[in-house]
Amino acid sequence: MKPILVTGAAGFIGYHLSAHLLRTGQRVIGVDNLNDYYDVALKRARVQHLERLEGFRFEHADIADAPAMERLFATHQFDLVHHLAAQAGVRYSLKNPRAYVRSNLDGFVNILEGCRHGGVKHLVFASSSSVYGANTVTPFAVGQNVDHPVSLYAASKKANELMAHAYAHLYRLPVTGLRFFTVYGPWGRPDMALFLFTRAMLAGEPIDVFNNGEMERDFTYIDDVIEAVARVGERPAAANPAWSGAAPDPASSTAPYRIYNIGNHAPVRLSRLIDLLEQKLGVKAIKNLLPMQPGDVPATFADVGDLARDFGFAPSTPIETGLSRFVDWYRAHYKV
Prior knowledge:
- This protein is 41% helix and 16% strand.
- Helix 3 runs parallel beside helix 5, helix 7 packs across helix 9 and helix 9 packs across helix 11.
- With 336 residues, it is of the alpha/beta class.
- The protein has eleven helices and 13 strands.
- The strands form four sheets. Strands 3-2-1-4-5-6-11 form a seven-stranded parallel β-sheet, sandwiched between helices.
């Protein structure tokens, strides 16, 4: 049985996906550079948990290191690659744009080249709901045009979709892009709002609430995300025989290329999230109300019709359930 490659294995989604695959009897090669964009100790703790599971091997490497990626693909024969490594974060891209070029563009080319020359049968890669950018028609559907990103991070993810399509067209490499919508849950990212709010509220510190709490996000629980990713991985992307250049569908192609939204299709207002968090934590939030930040969008809302049609599944965990599980994990992990 060939191992499955998971890049970004020390990251939030990469960790959970690797654990899921291992528990189903797969072997996983996990790659991560363990950068300091957020708490490295949390990333190392995730890796340590994975190393306790049978079938896991960790490779400390940077996807932007072309020779390292060439060696990786030459050493291991992969049929399936889950590419989740990336420089994340919208606001960070305003301060450190070159980090996004190195990881999300240079790094992605290295993965595409590895898949091309390594005979990979399916590449699943992480895109983002941020590609919808200036779109205002909701719910966001994969058939919409996404040519107006409002952050460099979003632009880099849109570029990934275009690059993946080029390789699918030129080399018939089956590729599936997944647009994730505000993923949250245990072992989550410390730079995300739920994590930031929980830490600050338990410490009695104020929280920054952008757009005066009027933002809406399609919070998607991690277990639902992993179920969707795993199902997608098992079915390589195929060409759409009905695709027409006269009326092009952005989510499919004459090449083996597909795009799906992975979202809970139930937006939650930020003020509502804070109310629920106050109830769960038993503390009142000290709110620092702020205007919208550059690069942010007022609302995200996923249309997951294509995902449900093709894979018989759509995320559905209520925010109350997912938030409770996150807080329980946070208290246990940080001994609060």
